[in-house]
């Protein structure tokens, strides 16, 4: 057993590839004699939920669109049998295939738009809107659970962020506006929708996309998944840029804008608001001003 590859990863990989010889390297971090590459990570005991959330998100993405995200190999919590030292016990671990990636190109952006629309965003939940376990958008815990309607689900997501901002303090006026959004805008824009709960990546910005150098195909990673309205998955991609316009054009060629279509831009603002509020929770600063501008526009468009 290689001394610098944890035994929990060695055991997991050898279930995949019996008899394989493993070596540690920089790229990939774990290399098999078969030529396959793996990446593993071990967290602190307090990070169990993050590891479970990412693993369950990847599992769902790989069912919906095989090959679009790195394949999950194993995850769990280190026990006495797989610990290399007493301090390992209780730590979460995560192992997936390694993908050597470059940036998303115009061509792979088109393929990503098509696959997201035709595969990921057609994979439906049988339990409603939400997700089985908490997931994390950045470091922010999304409580999830299951909801009968998208309105209820999205309202709970916004409520969770407002609760965190209230707890931090200093955001009283922002949170007051946020309550108006919950009372007026969310019901007005989301209640008329007739939609199915479909799988979302949840944090789909350019930093979580790439092109597999080996296959030339798009890859998405670091998901924060839940089942919701497909249009919500496009929000953070618009905010931070970096994803070519061909992605959005191809996406809507395969999955048209939801009705009422004339409210598409307002819904986009509402979905972008989640990420501005989340970045306010995480980083503060100018993100609070951006969130306020979004809310001003939405509240002006939806009269009391």
Automatic annotation (TrEMBL):
Keywords, alphabetical: Kinase, Transferase
Leader sequence segment: none
Reaction(s) the record says it catalyses: N(6)-D-ribulosyl-L-lysyl-[protein] + ATP = N(6)-(3-O-phospho-D-ribulosyl)-L-lysyl-[protein] + ADP + H(+)
Keyword Transferase included in the entry's annotation: yes
Gene Ontology molecular function: any one: protein-ribulosamine 3-kinase activity
InterPro entries reported in the protein's UniProt record: Fructo-/Ketosamine-3-kinase, Kinase-like_dom_sf
Gene3D superfamilies: 3.90.1200.10
Entry's EC annotation: 2.7.1.172
Enzyme class: transferase
Family: Belongs to the fructosamine kinase family.
UniProt name for this protein: protein-ribulosamine 3-kinase
Source lineage: Eukaryota, Fungi, Dikarya, Basidiomycota, Agaricomycotina
